[in-house]
Amino acid sequence: MIARNELWHELEKSLKSLVISISSTELDKHNRDLLDEFVENREYGIALEWLHSLIVERSIQLSLQQEKEIQRLAQLMEIDLR
């Protein structure tokens, strides 16, 4: 099992990378800042759920890699995004 600090580092790095990879035309500054704040405060589950809700609400088209990363993070955090 991954040690807590390693897990936090992995989640932080992955979530930040995922947010950056989604076009700024898809995510406005307010939501990007909010997602950054969630990640900085180690609220990784909230960040992932918020990002997922934005993707669904705005019908954001993701690459296969982005979709797989979201599912990987959800499994890692044991979050059901359905």
Notes on the structure:
By secondary structure, the chain is mainly alpha-helical. It has one domain (about 5-75). Helices cover about 70% and strands about 0% of the residues. α1 (about 5-20) runs parallel beside α3 (about 45-55). The longest helix has 18 residues, at about 5-20. The termini are far apart.
Report the radius of gyration as a whole number of Å.
Answer: 12 Å
Percentage of residues in helical conformation: 55-70%
Stretches with pLDDT under 50, minimum 5 residues: none
Integer average pLDDT: 93
Distance N to C terminus: 26 Å
SSE string, helices as H and strands as E:
HHHH
Structural class: mainly alpha
Strand content: under 5%
**Total number of distinct structural domains:** 1
- In total, the number of strands is 0
Summarize the structure.
The chain is mainly α. Helices cover 70% and strands 0% of the residues.
Topology:
Elements: H1 4-21, H2 29-40, H3 44-57, H4 64-76
Helix pairs in contact: 1-2, 1-3, 1-4, 2-3
What are the defining features of this structure?
mainly alpha; 82 residues
